[in-house]
Structure formats: structure tokens, C-alpha cells
Write a structure and sequence with these properties.
Strand order of the largest sheet: 3-11-8-2-7-5-6
Shape: elongated
Oligomer: single chain
Number of helices: 24
Length: 618
């Protein structure tokens, strides 16, 4: 009994000692904030506007979004807390005031940049903004100042900056009185524990976030990181770190891609077709296949394609998806011959255009989006790769340097100005398609302005005339896109030619809910995938191509119902172009009898077929 009492006494003493250690640790953790409450609160408020702005985005999974918002606030808490600790640890009043002024200026500047970008462009600090800053020359800087510095949005951001600056001055002037007031009003025990625990949790999250980010050496790794730490949900300080590291990662991507392009020239691909042959690759934009009458839409939007299908020249594939709803990601993965379903990165494999050119083809790249919104991230990230000087030298014979209003003008420009001299040609058309501003994608007051609000027979409660007009203009843009494709078919109808057409992604246009455009969700619904990721995919063969390659045409006909993802389209093009190369993988070519269905992983983690199967069971 005596031994037991001694044991209990010793245990109780150690527990009291442990409790004392914890209490001292909690007080120590809270001390910097207690000493500088004004600085802590003001800098926290200066950082919080971007996470709040992100919280207002329209996303499907609000629970997931809220958790990421709280996670972002925890990291912000840690950032501000460590800045406060820096002031607390500095010795000497003058040195302390100098450090505090410097940190105030840094946080205030980041807040000002964030407000300016958000109000003018609905953007935040990102890789895009840093890239634009690096690439802008003095003339462009002058034009930027003239265009944006005195807009209403800019003036509002300056006003808010000035108000915050005055608030900082007033609060620091009355710092002692505010500190005394807060200490008197706040529950000291609750404040101490709340501050310490939040700081501890935030520092752990921040360490995981920052260390993981700094270890990312390419864009694929950055992309995985963003699934867990969406940079829009973070404070401007963390966004800046993400932007800087993203520039480094993408620079590495391009270097890897150039090495792969150079390796192609160490191989010996052979063209097996002795007759002249033209392969036309057409990449569309924002095409919701459920607005194509070719795929059962109730309004006639694809008369040209349907005529070609009835004549036996066009084959419409029924089960094709895009891996993302973002042009820049899809384009890089469709030009590269990598397979996303097999976990391969685009920059670890060469482009099909490089293989075609080295085999003996002339490769012509005519792109509507080369100069479209050239300072936007989706343009910058694609062009930095697709039009990198070394990639261009190794992959293309020539590229367009003109800007066009409509897709038909792009096609006509190529037909008018390019006179191929080789027997074998690969022509790449990247169209504007149905991108964003639908009513601007076709000539107004023309035969393509066929459908109007009154033609849209939708009766949902949220459907109004403006939304019906948007649907009508989308259908008109789809009709015009079909006419462009019909024009391409006519240009190559009497030649040995094959056309592959698909869209980079889909587009919601009030199809099943009160929403249009493209929106990312970590757990997308079947309806969202159906309208944003399912895409039209067709192969058109001229009569001469059908005559010369009956086996390939029969294989195409047999393949139209196969499950396919567009990242492997390069393999199909190699076969259609009759190129024998070590890069060709028949099991990835949807037209090959040896084709093997691959996992269709969207957004790096979503199993498309599993989501659709679960939806059918429900």
C-alpha cells in the first residue's frame, strides 16, 4: 500500500510538472501576439481578402471548399504569427520599429497588388502575373499604365489602399491604448490558449504546404500540390511563393520537353505511304457534344458532319472524354504522345508534330489562339511550350503570324498563302470554336445567326430570356463550327487526306442547372463531367484515302464505340499518317485492333468511368 501511494504521488507530481511545462509553453507561444496585438490583427486582415474572395467562387463541393478555406486561414495565421514573432524577438526600440515598418510595407504592398488584380482582372498573385511582369517591355508597360492605372476599379483599389494605410497609422499611434483595452476586455486564459493552439496548427500546416511546394520540380507535381492547397485559397504571401516556384517548375518542363524533341532526331521514322498524303488535325474549343445534332441534340447544329456521315466518309466516336476542362493542360497532353491514364507526363515524351516533321512531313501550324489574350495564363503556358523557339525549329515547317476574327478566315488564309511542295503534309488547325463569348464566334447577321431566344423551349424556373439567348448563340457558334469543318472537308475532298477533329473540352451552357462555363470541383458530379469533359471526336476520310487504305477505314468504323481519352490522339495520328516509328504504341491507338482500354483519369484523380457507373446505379 505504501509503495502504491508513493507511485501515485510521484505520478501526480510528474503530471503537475507536465501541466506546468504545457502552461509555460502556451504562454510563451502567445507572448508575441500579446506584445504586438495591433500589428497581428492588422496584417491578418490585410491578408484575408483573397481567401474570402475565393470562398465566394461557385464550386460544387461547398464542404470541401470550406475545409480548404479554414486550412488557408490556418496557414495565414501562421504567416502573420511568425512575422509578429520577428518583431517580438528584435532587441532595441528603434530596430523593432524599423522591422515593423518594413513588414507593414510588405504586407500592405501585397494587399494592394491583390486588390488591383482582383478588381481589374478577377485574378490573384500567380505564375501568370509574374510571367507577364517578366515578359513586359517598356512599351507594353507604358500601354498598361495608360489602359489600367486610372480605371474605376483601379481607383477603388487605391482608395482602399489609402484607407488601410491611414488605419495602420492611427492604430499604431494609439497602439498603447488599444493594447491596454484589449488586455482588459479579452479573457486572458481563452486568448492565450486560442492563440497558441492556432499558431501550432498553422505552423505545422504551413511547414507541410511550403516544404511540399518547394520540393515540386515540375508542373505535374505542382498540380498535385494544388489539389490539396488551392493557391486561390491562400494568403498573398503564400500565393507569391507558389507563383515563384511555378515559374521554376514550368521552366524545367520546357527543358525536359526540348530534350525529348531532340531525341526524336536520333531515331529513324519512315513514311510507309508512297502516294501523296495530307493529315489534318483540327483542335476545337469548348464544344459540348450534347449540343451537336450529330450526337442526338434536338436542334440541327451539325448538318455538314451529318451529310459526311451519311455518305460514309465521317465516323463519329461516341465515348470520348478530355482529361481536363482547361485548354492549356489538354493541348500539351494531346500534342505530346504521353498517356495520362498510365501516369505519364507530357514533358517526358515528344510531340507528334516533331515525329511527323523528322519522318519527312511538312508540318503547318495555323492557330487562332496563338495571339488570343496573350497575357492570360492559358495562353502563356501553352505558347511557352508549343512555340518555344527550339520546339518550333524541330516541329514545324511554318506557323501563322496573323490574327483572325473567325475560324473560317484562318482556314482560308492557310489555303490561300501556303502552297505545299512535299508529298506528305500535316496541317494543324487550332480553332476558336465556341470559346466563352459565343456570339462573337460567328459572323453576325449571317446565315449562321439562325437560332434566337424564342427557339429555346426550356421551362425551368431559373431560365429567362438572357439565358435562352446565350444557349441560342452557343448553338449558332456550333452551327458555324460545323460549317468550318465542312469547308475543310471540301478543300481536301479530292485528295488523299484524312481529318481528325475533336474539342479540347466541353462547356456548360445551362444544360442541367443554372450555370454556364467551366468550374473545377475535387469531386465532380456525373452531370458536370458529361457536359464539361465529354467531347465530340470524329475522323473524316476522303474517297481516295478510303480507296488506298481500306483496312484502316474498316478499323476506324469498328472503333467508334470504344472508350477513349484524347491524350492518346497522337498515337492515332501516327497510324493515319502511315508513319513507322518506335514511338508508336498500337495498344494506345483507338483505331488499332490491338487497342486496350485504359483508365480514364480526369483532373489527376477522378475515375470518369467509375463516376458514370455510380451515377447509373443511382
Amino acid at each position: 500500500m505504501h509503495l502504491f501511494c508513493n507511485f501515485v504521488g510521484e505520478f501526480w507530481k510528474k503530471m503537475k510538472d507536465f501541466k506546468g511545462h504545457i502552461s509555460r509553453w502556451v504562454r510563451t507561444m502567445a507572448a508575441p501576439v500579446k506584445a504586438e496585438p495591433v500589428f497581428f490583427v492588422l496584417t491578418f486582415l490585410m491578408c484575408i481578402e483573397q481567401p474570402i474572395h475565393w470562398m465566394c467562387y461557385i464550386l460544387d463541393n461547398r464542404v470541401e471548399q470550406t475545409l480548404q478555406f479554414v486550412q488557408g486561414l490556418s496557414i495565414e495565421f501562421a504567416v502573420v504569427y511568425l512575422a509578429t514573432c520577428l518583431i517580438y524577438w528584435v532587441k532595441g526600440k528603434r530596430a523593432k520599429n524599423a522591422v515593423k515598418a518594413l513588414l507593414y510595407m510588405l504586407f500592405w504592398t501585397l494587399m494592394g497588388i491583390t486588390l488591383f488584380l482582383a478588381l481589374n482582372f478577377e485574378m490573384c498573385i500567380s505564375q501568370q502575373t509574374l510571367t507577364v511582369l517578366v515578359e513586359t517591355n517598356p512599351k507594353e508597360s507604358s500601354e498598361f499604365v495608360d489602359t489600367y492605372m486610372l480605371t474605376n476599379a483601379s481607383q477603388l483599389s487605391y482608395l482602399l489602399d489609402f484607407v488601410v494605410l491611414v488605419a495602420i497609422g492611427v492604430c499604431e499611434w494609439k497602439r498603447r491604448a488599444i493594447t491596454v483595452f484589449l488586455r482588459r476586455k479579452l479573457n486572458k486564459r481563452f486568448f492565450t490558449w486560442f492563440t497558441s493552439l492556432n499558431a501550432a496548427v498553422g505552423i505545422v500546416l504551413m511547414a507541410v504546404c511550403y516544404v511540399w511546394l518547394l520540393c515540386c520540380c515540375n508542373s505535374a507535381q505542382i498540380y498535385i500540390w494544388r489539389n490539396y492547397f488551392p493557391y486561390d485559397s491562400l494568403d498573398p504571401w503564400s500565393q507569391s511563393l507558389h507563383a515563384i516556384n511555378s515559374l521554376r517548375a514550368f521552366d524545367n518542363d520546357v527543358k525536359f520537353a526540348i530534350k525529348q524533341a531532340e531525341k526524336v532526331y536520333e531515331t529513324a521514322p519512315v513514311i510507309e505511304d508512297t502516294d501523296s498524303l495530307t493529315v489534318i488535325y483540327v483542335l476545337g474549343e469548348s464544344y459540348n457534344k450534347h449540343h451537336a445534332s450529330l450526337y442526338g441534340y434536338h436542334t440541327l447544329t451539325t448538318p455538314c458532319m451529318e451529310r459526311e456521315q451519311a455518305a460514309g466518309n465521317l465516323f463519329a466516336f461516341t465515348d470520348v472524354v478530355a482529361q481536363e476542362n482547361v485548354t492549356s493542360v489538354v493541348e500539351k497532353n494531346t500534342f505530346s504522345i504521353n498517356s495520362v491514364g498510365d501516369g505519364e507526363n507530357w514533358f517526358d515524351h515528344p510531340n507528334f508534330t516533331t515525329i511527323f516533321k523528322h519522318s519527312g512531313y511538312d508540318v503547318w501550324m495555323w492557330d487562332m489562339q496563338r495571339t488570343y489574350m496573350s497575357k492570360r495564363l492559358y495562353t502563356i503556358t501553352v505558347n511557352a511550350f508549343i512555340y518555344n523557339p527550339e520546339i518550333t525549329r524541330l516541329s514545324y515547317t511554318a506557323c501563322n503570324d496573323s490574327t483572325f476574327t473567325y475560324d473560317m478566315q484562318l482556314v482560308d488564309d492557310f489555303h490561300k498563302n501556303v502552297k505545299p511542295t512535299k508529298k506528305h503534309n500535316l496541317v494543324v488547325f487550332h480553332l476558336m470554336g465556341q470559346h466563352v463569348s459565343f456570339s462573337r464566334r460567328y459572323p453576325r447577321k449571317s446565315k449562321y445567326e439562325k437560332y434566337h431566344s424564342a427557339d429555346i423551349k426550356r421551362t425551368e424556373k431559373w431560365m429567362d430570356k438572357t439565358k435562352k439567348w446565350a444557349i441560342a448563340t452557343y448553338d449558332n457558334a456550333t452551327l458555324y463550327n460545323d460549317a468550318v469543318m465542312g469547308h475543310i472537308f471540301d478543300l481536301y475532298r479530292n485528295k488523299n487526306a484524312v481529318v481528325v477533329y475533336f474539342s479540347d473540352h466541353g462547356e456548360e451552357i445551362y444544360d442541367y442547372r443554372d450555370q454556364r462555363g467551366r468550374h473545377v470541383s475535387y469531386a465532380p458530379s456525373a452531370d458536370m463531367l458529361r457536359h464539361q469533359n465529354e467531347v465530340p471526336f470524329v475522323i473524316w476520310c476522303s474517297d481516295r484515302y478510303k480507296q488506298l487504305h481500306p483496312e484502316i477505314v474498316n478499323d476506324i468504323r469498328a472503333a467508334v464505340n470504344r472508350k477513349f481519352m484524347t491524350d492518346n490522339v497522337g498515337q492515332t495520328l501516327l497510324r493515319l499518317g502511315r508513319i513507322s516509328t518506335e514511338y508508336y504504341r498500337a495498344e494506345r491507338d483507338v483505331t488499332s485492333p490491338r487497342f486496350t482500354t485504359r483508365p480514364r483519369i480526369l483532373y489527376d484523380h477522378v475515375d470518369y468511368d467509375a463516376v458514370m457507373a455510380a451515377s447509373k446505379r443511382r
